[in-house]
Amino acid sequence: MTEPRQGRMKLIALAALFVAPLAIAWLWFGNIERFTPTDSAAHGELIAPAQPLGGFALAGVAGGPTVTAETLHGRWTIVQMGGAQCDETCRESLWEARQVHTRLGRDAVRVQRLYVVAGDVEVTDPAFFADEHPDLLLARIDAEDAVFSELEAGHTYLVDPLGNLMMRYGPDAEPKDLLADLKRLLRVSRIG
């Protein structure tokens, strides 16, 4: 009596060996929403796939140098889109980005900031930029700069050291979110 019982147990164990993975897979894929994290680690909006900026030459503002793809190559770049008239909201946004840059500590050398204005205009207060943001790159775009002309004024973008537009932050984004994303990227990045 023990031999048929052992045979039956072996048959059940063998069947379970083949059926169990199928049952687990069926449960897993049938309830994938439960097992998939809904939040990403990024605080900004990830631009997927990353958009290469390609070759470009943005005219410098207030006597500043021309900004090219080579200028951005090798460093992470915080790009802020704005207008020639930098109002109080614009000034606060620039100050917040400068604080983020400063709070990166020793990694701040791996990051640069760029403020881009639209149109063939000069900024109305170049002394403000020279005094308050001496390390800020200033450039302007025209209609021929296809990639930059698509970027929204008042938004902040993050460009990787290879020249790819990869993250976007709205006007109401918190500076701590940009700082957290940058710290994470700088920690895991082997480039820039």
Question: How would you describe this protein?
Answer:
The chain is α+β, with helices and mostly antiparallel strands and 192 residues long. The protein folds into 2 domains: 2-35; 45-188, Glutaredoxin, CATH 3.40.30.10. It is 41% helix and 23% strand. Strands 1-8-7-4-5-6-2-3 form an 8-stranded mixed beta sheet. It is elongated and about 95 Å long. The mean pLDDT is 85.
What does the secondary structure layout of this molecule look like, with pairings?
Elements: H1 2-30, H2 32-35, E1 45-52, E2 57-60, E3 67-68, H3 69-72, E4 76-82, H4 88-103, E5 111-118, H5 126-132, E6 137-141, H6 146-149, E7 156-159, E8 164-169, H7 175-188
Parallel strand pairs: 4-5, 5-6
Antiparallel strand pairs: 1-8, 2-3, 2-6, 4-7, 7-8
Helix pairs in contact: 4-7
Structural class of the helix and strand makeup?
alpha+beta
Poorly predicted segments: none
Mean pLDDT: 85
Domain count: the total is 2
**Major β-sheet profile:** 8 strands, mixed
CATH superfamily of the largest domain: Glutaredoxin
Number of strands: 8
CATH architectural type of the largest domain: 3-Layer(aba) Sandwich
Strand content: 15-25%
Radius of gyration: 26 Å
How is the largest sheet built, in terms of strand order? Answer: 1-8-7-4-5-6-2-3
Provide a quick synopsis of the model.
The chain is α+β, with helices and mostly antiparallel strands and 192 residues long. The chain is 41% helix and 23% strand.
